[in-house]
Amino acid sequence: MEEDNLKNLIKRLSKLPGLGPRSAQRAALFLIKNKEKDMLPLSKALYDVAHYYKPCVQCNNLTESDKCSICDDPRRHQNRLCVVEDISDLWAIERSGVFQGKYFVLGGNLNIMDGRGPSELGIDKLVKYVSLMCDTHTSNEIILATSATVEGQTTAHYIAERLQEFSIIISRLAHGVPVGGELNYLDDGTLALAMKARTPVG
């Protein structure tokens, strides 16, 4: 039974990004040897995140409350919304410190082959968010910070088309983002430059 449990642990660890079967074996053995110091605290941390974290009702960021700390922060610019593909992209932009507005996390990009269409990305929810912004604020700007991949550009163009009915500025990240690049792999300086040099869409 113990052997089956250990194999199961290794199998699940090997599915994590950057970990293959051998790395998973090393990680499992390390945790077993350091049960009190590392394994038990890790299992508690995993349990807590699994049971207490959920998507923010407004932007889809991770939070323990209904709204995340960014959405709840009155000091953030209420008329600027940055649309990103994943939470890791939001974290990358936050690390750069160059953006002080709000976010909307799509949870991926448009990819019909992988079964991700507009409904899977919650784009209707995004449109409602933008509509509410326009009702309560002026000089609104939507920054489409999707990756510079074919799927990312397709997603940005689709969103821009859906938002054409609103009197808003729609911009995209510019210089510094290489074609085919993903945001969470960029250094902070490059990302900051891309944010400052964003360009209008359409």
Explain this structure:
This protein folds into two domains: 2-52, Orthogonal Bundle (Helicase, Ruva Protein, domain 3); 65-200, Dna Topoisomerase Vi A Subunit, Chain: A, domain 2 (3-Layer(aba) Sandwich). Strand 3 (80-84), helix 4 and strand 4 form a beta-alpha-beta unit. Helix 1 crosses helix 2 and helix 4 crosses helix 7. The strands form two sheets. Strands 4-3-5-6-7 form a five-stranded mixed beta sheet. Strands 1-2 form a two-stranded antiparallel sheet. The protein has 202 residues and is of the alpha/beta class. The protein has seven helices and seven strands. The model has no long low-confidence stretch (mean pLDDT 89).
List keywords for this structure.
single chain, 202 residues, alpha/beta, Helicase, Ruva Protein, domain 3, Dna Topoisomerase Vi A Subunit, Chain: A, domain 2, 2 domains, five-stranded mixed beta sheet, two-stranded antiparallel sheet, 7 helices, elongated
Total domain count: 2
Decide which structural class fits the backbone.
Answer: alpha/beta
Average predicted local confidence, pLDDT:
89
| CA radius of gyration | 20 Å
Which assembly state applies to the chains in this document? single chain
Q: What percentage of residues falls in helices of 4 or more residues?
A: 40-55%
Which fold name fills CATH's third level, the topology of the largest domain?
A: Dna Topoisomerase Vi A Subunit, Chain: A, domain 2
Please report the distance between the alpha carbons of the first and last residues.
61 Å
